[in-house]
Amino acid sequence: MKARRDHLPADARAAWSAAIAGHLDRLGQSRRLTRFGAFWPFGSEIDLRPAVAAHPDWLWFFPRVVSTQPPRLAWGTEPLEKGPWGLMEPTLAQHFLPPVQLLLVPGLAFNDQGHRLGYGRGFYDALLVNLPEGVLTVGVGFEAQMHLPVPVEPHDWPVQALLSERGLHLLTADG
After folding, report:
1. Overall fold of domain 2-170
2. What average pLDDT does the segment 70-88 reach?
3. pTM for this one?
4. Which residues, other chains included, contact 3 with Cβ-Cβ below 8 Å and sequence gap of 6+?
């Protein structure tokens, strides 16, 4: 799945990332959201920087890896610095649960039930199961990554919606 995403043309990925930023803008405005969990792009991942730049009035929280065993993220705002795996992470991350209204969840592939194929370390599964009720969880990526078969294990936790360049697709009544 990573190779498939890597082979998508860079100019198309940039245009799709901009379209996703537009959909996110409309979603945030329509629901009056101001606190978002996001991630900085790594490799050929979707680039959420256009959405972040378009809304300096929104509060953006980013993950920092604080433990691999057990998998645990902490969350903080900018400034960001390069972490041990080359990911951009907040310099100060003091929240184990992001204080957000909407959490954007990365993945290599997503199925129609909101399960995702990640990088296999379990960080987001450990987070999703512990999020407070009321946080909208949205799997975000390119349409080429959506509606695909993915392996599902007992510890996997689905997102409530999918967001791609084609728009938002709610998967549950919670959205």
Report:
1. Rossmann fold (3.40.50)
2. 93
3. 0.93
4. none
